[in-house]
Amino acid sequence: MRDQTPIDGFAESWLNQLLKDSPMLATEIGVDLNQHQLDDFSPERIDDNRRKIALAKSELSAIQPEDFTDEITKHAMLADFDSKLEIVDSGWVYRDLNNIASAVQGIRDVFDLMPMNTLDNWENVSSRIADIPRAIAGYQQTLEVGVNTNQTPAKRQVVEVIQQIRELVSPKGPLQQMVLAGSAEFTQLDSRLHNSFEKASASLQEFQGFLQHDLLPSATDNEAVGRDLYSLLSNRFLGQKIDLDETYVWGLEQLAEIEAEQLAVANQIKPGVMIEEAFEILDRDPAYQIEGSENLRAWMQGTSDLAVKQLDGVFFEIPAPLMALECMISPTNQGGIHYTQPAEDFSRPGRMWWSIPTGVNNFSTWREKTTVYHEGVPGHHLQLGWQVYNKDLNGWRRNVSWTSGHGEGWALYAEQLMQEFGFLDDPADRMGMLDAQRMRAARVVLDIGVHLEKEIPEGGQTWDYEYAKSFMRRNVSMNDKSLEFEINRYFGWPGQAPSYKIGQRVWNQLRSDQQARLGSKFDLKKFHSDALKLGGVGLDTLLFAFK
Length: 547
Known about the structure:
mainly alpha, three-stranded mixed β-sheet, 24 helices, 5 strands, 64% helix, 4% strand, globular
């Protein structure tokens, strides 16, 4: 382990400040600090955070790097500070409400990561539930600032969150079910847990009323955020400023290339069929069907375990603590799949979470095998697991340094690698990978098209919600509930969805550049090891590291 430098010390101090200010971040990375509390989402905390970031930027700028690791840390941290300051100053924070990644979902999802094995654990859970009224009140105040300054979310996102709160506090909702589970295991907490739930439920219902009667009438009908704000948000998710117009055209080109490849694979499945017919054939084939969420979880786990075993020591270095990856069914029913990194000490392993929409009980493995590789190994689990494992990095780089373009770009690149390594040779699994890649290319076009109010590819009108739905239906094979969730996500979380495919583009370009530079000395396994050991950095920092 390298000796700590002044920049490492600064990064560790900044991480400690982040953890002090965000108990939910502490939960995410497995640090036992203020686990009885939620974050402060108030305008005062936003102002305080901005002041701290500006001061930290000034302090870091004055520290000279001592080695290459320091250079990477400084480059990544300054880019992170600049981006955060731009977002706060844009006013986005006062309208930041959407169906997937705003404060309501953060409060809901943090309980999934809390340990629940002991009485002390459940006392923290109970206290944190009791803290929901304070956290939600602060968030409401922030949204009220937005209302008073004409910076409000789109109506569609408000309606979505109203429904999510309704489900969250329902008798069969995840919050009530969690309370019942804790009361059954630790009967001495029964009264306390239920009192906490009643107060939390009441505050969430009051907040739902605010959304319905105050925010919704003020919310905007125009769902496009515009070029200037979109550029800031895109940079935040990528760690790189891009030419949005060129990227839009590139996305259309990617769609055409993937569609042609899908057609070729469809004819391997059955000569003469079109892509949609091949999907229907595969969905009728019992070899690729699973019924029930527990069977899905078991299939995910088996697929993941086999990938870890076969990749270790051959294509990647996989440290012993990363050999464990838990596949989980999420207690929520919103749709989507996500990964949560291991705890700092690996007491909590990396986990892959599948949120199954209500009413969905049948699954096609040909569609999902590539997703297991994306979320697990060699995707997010290998990437984020290595980041936590690498003790040569300071705590900030190990635990919180992350951009979607780097991370999700790697995960898409990982899917591509599994094709290259022969794990997707079955035409059915290959079709699933191409379907996933086509979705990621389609949302590059959709996301930029919607928020920059571009003309649709066929011409004659600008992008709107109805056209976006028809566009995705033409390009993605997905059940209607999941598809609607995805489209609403793109409309409410600008710049995030394109980061996957754009990030993959950068990873591929970096690999090509290194191959050209090193020639016969290029070693793919070493390239991946060197890249993974950097941890999560913005795309500009990634390219800087390989100069």
